[in-house]
Predict the structure.
Amino acid sequence: MARREMPNPMAERTRLATAGAHAAVVGNLGKQPRGDVWRGNLFLALLLLAVVLALIGLIALIVQSALKGAPAFSMDLFTEGPSIVNPETAGFRPAIIGSLYLIAGVVLLIVPLGVGAAVYLEEYADGDRWWNRLIELNIQNLAAVPSIIYGILGLAFFVRGPLSLGFVVAAGSLTLALLVLPTVILAAREAIRAVPPSIRDGSLALGATQWQTIRRQVLPASIPGIVTGVILAVSRALGEAAPLLLVGAATFVTADQPNPFEGGYSAMPVQIYNYALQAQDEFKALAAAGVVVMLVVLLALNSFAIWLRNRYEQQW
Amino acid sequence: MSSKWWLVLGACGLLAFGVAACGGDDGDSSSGDGEAVSGEIRIDGSSTVAPLTSAIAEGFNAENPDVNITVGTSGTGGGFEKFCAGETDANDASEEIGEEEIAACEAGGVKYEELQVANDALTVVVNPENPVTCMTVDQLGSVWEPNSEITSWSDIEGLEPPYDESLDLYGPGSDSGTFGYFTEAVNGEEDAIRNDFNDVGEDDNATVTGVSGAPGGMGYFGYSFFKENESSLKALEIDSGSGCVAPSAETAQDGAYAPLSRPLFIYPSAEALADPAFDAFMEYYLDNVNAIAEQVGFIPLTDQQLGEQTDKLDTLIREGGGTETTG
Amino acid sequence: MEARSSIEAARAPGGRLDPSRPLVASSPRWGERLIQLSLALCAVISVATTTAIVISLLVPSIGFFGEVSFGDFFSTDDWAPLTADPSFGVLRPVIGTLSVTLWSLMFAIPVGLCSAIYLSEYASPRVRKLVKPILEVLAGVPTVAFGVFAVTFLSPEIGKLFPEFIKTPPFAAGIAGLAVGLLIVPIIASISDDAMKAVPGGLREGAYALGATKLKVATRVVFPAAISGVVASIVLAGSRAVGETMVVLLAAGKTPNLTLDPGASVQTMTAFIGTTATGDVAVGTIAYDTIFAVGALLFVMTFALNIFAIRLVRRFREVYE
C-alpha cells in the first residue's frame, strides 16, 4: 500500500528536468531575443506590485488604526474600565487583566503538555507504530481546525459538561491552551530534532538513562527553540477572540482580579470586538486604539521570539 | 548554559510581576470601613437592558471599588435559565418572565421580584420623503409577517397616501430582544417574521444608514436612537385601534403608544439580596435609574412607577431577610 | 550507579565481557517507565482533543438530525432557524462562506504567489531578509484587527469610491473577503516560497544553461516543479478563510443572502455560530442545536481540505528530499 502511494523521485526529477529543458529550448530558438527583455521587466514589475500590495495592506492597517484610535489615546486606556456613560474615559483595564490571567493559565498548561508531547514523539515513539502515526496525524489536523470549533469544544467540555467550570477564566485558558498546543508541539519537536544524535549517543555511552540524557543534554539545548515556540503560541492565544466569545468573556466587567475559577472576565480581543460593534464614534476610536495596543504587544513579543531564536541558535 | 535558565526565569518573573502589579489588592475580603461594600455581583440577561444596568454598575463601582460586577448579555431567555438555576443574582429582561421560566424558578427555589426600571418605545422609522404618516398594527403585520409578499409601499392595503416605492426592510436579528418584542407585537407570534429583511444585528446605525438612504426604507429600533437621528429619519405614528399615536416619552410612559411601548425589567433574587453588596447595589439602582436612563437612551419611569418599584424591592428584601432601604 | 553494576554483571568470570550477556539494565527501571508513560499521555492529549471535538459536535447534531431531516438541511435554501416557523436549509450560510472565501482567494492567490515567486527567484538575500519578516508580521496580526480595519476603513472608503457597490452598508462579502485575503497572503506566500526554494538548483541551472530567461525559468521550470506545494498552500489558505470568524462577524453582516455578489451582505457558517451562541437562544432547543450541526459541517469541510493539503505537502517534500 505504501509503495503504491509514493511517487518515484527519480522519475519525477527526470520529467521536470526534461520539461525545463524543453521550455527553455522551444522558447528561445527562432524567437526574437529583444521581446524577452521588456517581457521580463514587465513580469518583475508585476511581482513587485504584488509584494507592494501586501505591504501596503499591512501599513494601511497599522496607520489607519493609529489614526482612528488617536482620539482615544491616553492613560485612561490602561487605567479605566469600559464605560457606557462616558466613552471619552473608557478603557481596557479589565480586558488587559483578563488577558494576562488567561495567558498565565495558557502558559502553565502548554509548557508541560507541549514539551512532554514533543519529547515523547521525538525520543520515545516508534514512528512505525499505528498509534504514534495517529497522534502525529491528529496534531497536524488540530493545527488547522477553525478556532471557533475550539470554542464549541470549550463550551461543551469545560464550561458545561464534565468539568462544568462555568464561564470563568480557567475554562478560557483551557480552551485557548488546546488551540495553541499544536504550535508548541511543532516548535518543540523542531528544537529537539535539531540536537544532533551524537550528543545523545555520547550521553548514553557514558551510562546515562534515556531520561537523564533528555533532561540534562537534549532539553537544555532545545530551550531557546521551545521558548520561541511558546512565545509564538502565546501571541496567537492573545489575539484570538472567536473561542472566547463562546466560552464566555462577558460584555461588561468591573472586576479587576478575576478568580480563575469564579466570576466573569473579559479579554482584549473580545473587548475590542464589543467596542467595534457600538454606534458612537468614541467607541469606534476606542476599538482602533485597542487594536494598536494589541499590535504593539504582539509585535514586541514576536520580535523578541525571533531575536531569541537568532541569538541562541546553537551551531553544532 | 546557565544564562538560558536565567532568561527563562526572567521571562516567568516578568509575567508574574505583570499580573501581580496590575492585580493589586485581593478583591474578595470584605472591608468594613465606611460605606463601601465588597463582593461579587453577577447579572445577565437582555442585551437591550444591559447598557442601563452596566451604566448603573459603573456609577456604583465608582463608590464601591471592591465590588466585582459582571453584566452578561445572553439574552432575556438565556439569562432566565441561569437565573432560575441560581447562577446569577439578577436578570435583565426586555419582556416579562414567561410561564416556563416561572416554573423553572420555582423548581430551582429562586424567589424573585419583577422590578420595572425604564420604558422604551419601539419606533418604526421611514425615509423622510415617504408621505405616509400613520400605519395600523394590521398593516405593519402584513408587511413584516412570515411569507409576506408585499414588495412595494403601494401594495399595502388601505395605506394613504399611495407611495410607489419598493420596500427596503431593516431590523435587528433573531437573537435580539427588540426583535422578539416587535415580532410578537406586530405579527402576533414571537420570532415570526418574513425571511427577506436586512438583518443589521446589533448595529442600529446600519438601520439608520439604510432607511435614510432608501426612499422605500423601513426599520425599527428604540426611541432614543430615533431621537439621536431625528434629522435623517421620520417616525411613523401607530394606530392600534384608537387613533394614530406618535412615539414620545409621555405616550410610552402612559402606555398610549401601543403595542410598541414596552417596559424594561430587572429581576433580582431574594437570596442574593441577603448579601449586603447586592442589597446596596439594588438600592443604588432605583435611586439613580431615572437619571441614568436618559443618558443611556431610555424613557425614565414616572414618579409613581418609581415609588411602586421601591416598595416592591423593600418587600423582597424583607422576605429575604435583609435590611430595608431607608426612604 | 546502576550502569556500573550492570557492566560488572555482564563480565564473565575472568574479567572479560561476556558476549552472551549484553549490557542490559539489571533492574526494570520503573522511574524511566513512569516518565515515558507520562510523556506519552501528554502526546495522547492530541487524540483526546480530536475525540472531544467530535463528541461535542456529534452528540447535539444527532439530536438535531433527529428532528430535521438531512434532506431539509442540505437541499432546501430557506434558512431561518431561529424564527417561530423555522427552516433549516444550510445552503445559504454555506454559500456565504464560499463567497467570502472566493473573494479572499481572488486577492490572496495573485498577491501571495507573485510574492513567493519574487522572494524565491528574484529577490536578493538582503531584500529577502527584509521582506520575509514583514510577511511574518502580517501573519501575527490578530483577526479582530482585520475586522475593525475592514469595517472602519475599507468599507467607508470603498463606499466612497464606488457608491453603488455596497448594497447594505457597511456589510459586504467582498470587503470581508478583501480583509480575509490580506490575512491569508502570508500562508500562500510562505508555503509556496518553501516549495519553490525546494526545487533543486540543478533544474534552474540546466534551464539557464540552455538559454532560458529568468521569466521562463520562474514560470516554466520552477513553478510547475513546485506545483503541489503551491496547490497545498492555496488549499490551506482556503481552509483558513473558511474557518475565519471575527472578520466576517464585523464586516460581512448577518443577512443570509444566497449570492456570490461581493457587494451583498452574507452570513457565513462561522458568523452564524458566533452570533447564535452569544445570543438569546435557549440551550437545548433545536434552534440552539443548529449551532452544532453547522459546526459539524464546518469541521468536516476544513478537515477534508486539510487532509488534502497535508497529502500534497508530503508529496512535494518526498520528491525533493
Remarks:
- Chain B has two domains: 3-120+263-318, 123-246.
